[in-house]
């Protein structure tokens, strides 16, 4: 592997922080915690590694298995020894939807509120109990069956953060169909690519949604995606649409979008009515039956369908929610993530329901109606555990502390962050200002591929260092490897890998075993490679330093530089493009594009707008480069490889550190790019 690239240098962002300042978990949290004190963490951790099967089976024994298994974790990470695989409780039979619903009804939680739905407008809110959720899930699973969905099929879900999304995911799981949730900010092309890859016959969407004052016409996007899929010979036969806009309060100054219908449309509410009293049994799934697909960016451009299976993912989601958030029966648990991302899957839907928690689903944005929204909602419902992103924290911090005034946030006990490294300034703001210095902060490091938390503090156990993901989750065994694959013992920095399987890990890339091996197991034989770099300090704490591959992390979302580049070069005036991550105060980093134009073309505001539009249409608004700079040429090695290391320095404005450029074909392009940047600035 090449050099370890430190994208977001946390070590240098110590604003407001005393050297080596360590924060202890608040005493009341320590007292009643599932894991109380560091000593206890170390003991349980050692047991989870040394007696791993016994450890995981004890965890799993709290869940319902229709049929047990004598098997524990089995795996092979070394391609030289045969196929790469991981299995957990092979031969057992269970169903995650049953465990989230029926199991809780049997435990007497039927009347407990499963979720509070907080709409885009503060006046739009509703609740659903465990038994109501169960009834809707049974009903919608009958709807899916009536549309021909069977065990093993993939159903695409393109929905806002509304109750029907939870219902649809659980209904798929109930009947053994895989859900493939596509973030409702993705474009028609992205949605269609995911429909085509998994050959989805049924797409569930909504008419539209509001995010703040902005209206989004989801149905139009869904219609185009269906058309595009058809042009690739994948025929969606049912487009089930929730009539969400009919029940929402329209934000002031906004209006309802016009909804176009097609021949394959079915209205969600009508379909539910048709299946009101239809029985729809649970499918007992094999432990290793696929549960869902979730697409994530890949460094070669095409998104990968990350595949998770039943028993392992369920056990890991259950355990990590319990331990990381110290889940307690009276918690009001709020994960602000969208279900279009893995955090929504594991820590908004499955993990909290498996733990019988009361959760909050939030459809809106942190800045609407104003930047107090998070804190208003926290006080309104008495949130005890809040799980959000560093980007949201930085954005709200930048708005000023006056937005905290008038709210107490006194019920908060744990604040979690996920998606990207958190800089100490944002960490301290969450701890001191939001949490009144009376909370534990858990900076949770993990990936779509890992299914659940891999490195994190535990709220009643781990002394906290701002910016450090800290310690491994039970059963997770991180190792740092140097570029030659040698293990770095003790303090040091290297490529973050795991040397043993854990129940929640991905089981494959949908339809592409080669890519699964190449991406995760070939870089360092015998290890799962995360694609991230990390540093271990003298106390054994792990600090994530950022991606070491060609992915970038924008506001906690992974984007592929190759995918953005191919969207840019699709423009007739662009000859070549290179995209790198540049640091950003709020988003962590942003896409910075260098484009070489065809002879005779020059960059101008209109072309920039066209290029941005192209990226928005091909991928989604998230991926649009903030800066597009014309490049008369790109720095390339003699073998024709673009040297991104140099482009990153130029984008960052730290070109003094460019280093040796003598291996380049044309060194003079660097000077031109630097002066192009200052001209632009
Ligand atoms: C859960 C999720 C995964 C990538 C991961 C890493 C970055 C996530 C982090 C973090 C530093 C943390 N990442 N959590 N970096 N500290 N606490 O975000 O999944 O969308 O697949 O992204 O996000 O780079 O490899 P996913």
From TrEMBL:
Q: What does the UniProt keyword field contain? A: ATP-binding, Ligase, Nucleotide-binding
Start and end residues of each AMP-dependent synthetase/ligase domain: 110-508
Entry EC no(s): 6.2.1.1
Keyword tRNA-binding recorded = no
Q: Which Gene3D superfamilies match?
A: 3.30.300.30, N-terminal domain of ligase-like
Provide the Acetyl-coenzyme A synthetase N-terminal domain boundaries. Answer: 41-100
Alphabetically, which GO biological process terms does the record hold? acetyl-CoA biosynthetic process from acetate
Ranges where the AMP-binding enzyme C-terminal domain occurs: 563-641
InterPro entries the record matches: Ac_CoA_lig, ACAS_N, AMP-bd_C, AMP-bd_C_sf, AMP-binding_CS, AMP-dep_synth/lig_dom, ANL_N_sf
Please state which protein family the record places this protein in: Belongs to the ATP-dependent AMP-binding enzyme family.
What protein does this entry describe? Acetyl-coenzyme A synthetase
């Amino acid at each position: 592997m090449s050099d370890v690239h430190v994208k977001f240098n946390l070590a240098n962002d110590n604003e407001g922080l005393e050297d080596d300042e360590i924060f202890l978990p608040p005493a009341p949290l320590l007292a009643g915690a599932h894991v109380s004190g560091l000593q206890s963490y170390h003991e349980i951790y050692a047991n989870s590694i040394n007696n791993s099967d016994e450890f995981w089976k004890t965890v799993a024994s709290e869940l319902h298995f229709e049929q047990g298994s004598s098997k524990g974790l089995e795996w092979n990470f070394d391609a030289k020894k045969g196929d790469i695989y991981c299995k957990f409780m092979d031969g057992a039979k269970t169903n995650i939807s049953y465990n989230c619903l029926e199991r809780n009804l049997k435990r007497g939680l039927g009347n407990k509120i499963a979720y509070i739905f907080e709409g885009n407008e503060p006046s739009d809110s509703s609740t659903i109990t465990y038994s109501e959720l169960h009834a809707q899930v049974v009903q919608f699973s009958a709807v899916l069956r009536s549309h021909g969905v069977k065990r093993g099929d993939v159903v695409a879900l393109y929905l806002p953060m509304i109750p029907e999304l939870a219902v649809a995911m659980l209904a798929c799981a109930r009947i053994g169909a895989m859900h493939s949730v596509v973030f409702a900010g993705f474009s028609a092309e992205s949605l269609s690519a995911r429909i085509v890859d998994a050959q989805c016959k049924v797409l569930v969407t909504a008419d539209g949604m509001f995010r703040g004052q902005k209206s989004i016409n989801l149905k139009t996007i869904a219609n185009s995606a269906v058309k595009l899929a058809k042009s690739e010979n994948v025929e969606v036969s049912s487009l089930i649409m929730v009539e969400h806009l009919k029940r929402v309060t329209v934000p002031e100054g906004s209006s309802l979008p016009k909804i176009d219908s097609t021949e394959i449309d079915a209205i969600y509410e009508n379909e539910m009515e048709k299946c009101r009293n239809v029985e729809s049994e649970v499918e007992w799934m094999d432990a290793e039956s696929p549960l869902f697909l979730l697409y994530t960016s890949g460094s070669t451009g095409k998104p990968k369908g990350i595949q998770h299976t039943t028993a392992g993912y369920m056990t890991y989601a259950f355990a990590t929610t319990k331990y990381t958030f110290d889940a307690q029966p009276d918690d009001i648990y709020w994960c602000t993530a969208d279900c279009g991302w893995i955090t929504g899957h594991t820590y908004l839907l499955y993990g909290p329901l498996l733990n019988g928690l009361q959760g909050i689903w939030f459809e809106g944005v942190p800045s609407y109606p104003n930047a107090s929204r998070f804190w208003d909602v926290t006080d309104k419902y008495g949130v005890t555990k809040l799980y959000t992103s560093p980007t949201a924290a930085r954005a709200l911090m930048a708005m000023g502390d006056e937005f905290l005034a008038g709210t107490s946030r006194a019920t908060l006990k744990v604040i979690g962050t996920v998606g990207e490294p958190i800089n100490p300034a944002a960490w301290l703001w969450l701890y001191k200002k939001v949490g009144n210095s009376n909370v534990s902060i858990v900076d949770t490091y993990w990936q779509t591929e890992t299914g659940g938390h891999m490195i994190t503090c535990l709220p009643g156990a781990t002394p906290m260092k701002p910016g450090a993901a800290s310690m491994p989750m039970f059963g997770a065994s991180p190792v740092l490897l140097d570029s030659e694959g040698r293990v770095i013992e003790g303090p040091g920095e290297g490529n973050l890998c795991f040397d043993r399987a854990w129940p929640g890990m991905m089981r494959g890339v949908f339809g592409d075993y080669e890519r699964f091996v190449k991406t995760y197991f070939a870089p360092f034989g015998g290890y799962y490679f995360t694609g991230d770099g990390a540093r271990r300090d003298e106390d054994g704490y792990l600090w994530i330093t950022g991606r070491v591959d060609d992915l970038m992390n924008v506001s906690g979302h992974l984007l592929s530089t190759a995918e953005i580049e191919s969207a840019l070069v699709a423009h007739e005036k662009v000859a070549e493009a290179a995209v790198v991550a540049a640091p950003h105060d709020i988003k962590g980093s942003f896409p910075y594009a260098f484009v070489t134009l065809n002879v005779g073309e020059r960059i101008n505001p209109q072309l920039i707008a066209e290029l941005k539009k192209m990226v928005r249409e091909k991928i989604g608004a998230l991926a649009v480069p903030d800066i597009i700079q014309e490049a008369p040429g790109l720095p390339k090695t003699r073998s024709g490889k673009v040297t991104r290391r140099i482009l990153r320095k130029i984008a960052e404005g730290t070109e003094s550190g460019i280093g040796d450029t003598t291996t380049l074909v044309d060194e003079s392009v660097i000077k031109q790019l630097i002066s192009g940047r200052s001209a632009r600035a």
